[in-house]
Fold this protein.
Amino acid sequence: MRLRVSAGTAAMLGLRGGGGKDAPTTGYLMIGDQCPRNCAFCAQARGSLAGSGRLSRVTWPEYELADVLPALVAACRQGLLLRLCVQTVAGEDASRQLAELVPLLCDLAGVPVSASVYIRDLQSLEALLASGLQRVGLALDAATGDIYAQTKGGSFEAARELLARAAEAYPGRVSTHLIAGLGETERDLLTQLQWCLDRGILVGLFAFTPVPGTALEARRAPDLSSFRRLQAAAHLLRLGERRAEQLVFDAGGELAGMGQGMSAERLAELLGDGAAFRTSGCPGCNRPYYNERPGKVPYNYARPLGVAEAREAVGLVIGLAGQDAAANARPRNPEDEIRVERPPR
């Protein structure tokens, strides 16, 4: 069997040179090439010209499993890798390969194994979990039905129904992804995040990454300050300190406050350790450079933040403390709604 290995994982395993400052704490593998689906943001999409060796901005060189497995098992046993994660494209070939690969990884690696897959029914999910997977990711990606239809195609409600049924049937074993920057408002994304949390679904928050060769290659990545607001609010939602309906949004759906009773001191206390701004998703997953370039301030930090980094990140959101919902939920002047309009989707 041949499979792809993320460039960072391959470097830390000694399969190739290079590697970034932050090493992966999950081993990232990919099976299948050129997905039959056509997600507008994905390098593996049917209509993508990005090449089969790309996913997000990461390159994925191909190797024989026999060359990868010994190094992978050694890294897991040494505690260098805390989890293995298999990315799959849609299609029967990838499904067959996954069914063959997962038991092997589970038997030999001694760490939890996750997979991000495309399935249509609970029977498929049951078979995957029975093969040894600890968690299965069913990527929602889009925060609204309109954006789902525009970027992924198909039914948003059907995808959510399957996600909800999966989480109910297998509590604690179902994950999803949400991508910020596809044209949704901050209200849209945080409302969808709350929907997932209410059903026990683990959410990995991504920043949209424009990849050359994809349908959305010309779209800009989200503003860092907007992503910091989303991270901070998502952290409060996960902690149970706030619910999405308690947050304050302006007329354009941008986060304007964390709601009554949230002082600046309390917000700084909750965010001060920097955990809100680290990679979210499965335990042990840090996805270095998945959304960002080396040398740039990351959207998702792949490691604990330094004191100055945490202070800078908190500084982008601390002004949201103590806002009154009634004062901020209505426009301040008649031109506000025009001022906050989003770019066309």
In short: The two ends are 40 Å apart (CA to CA).
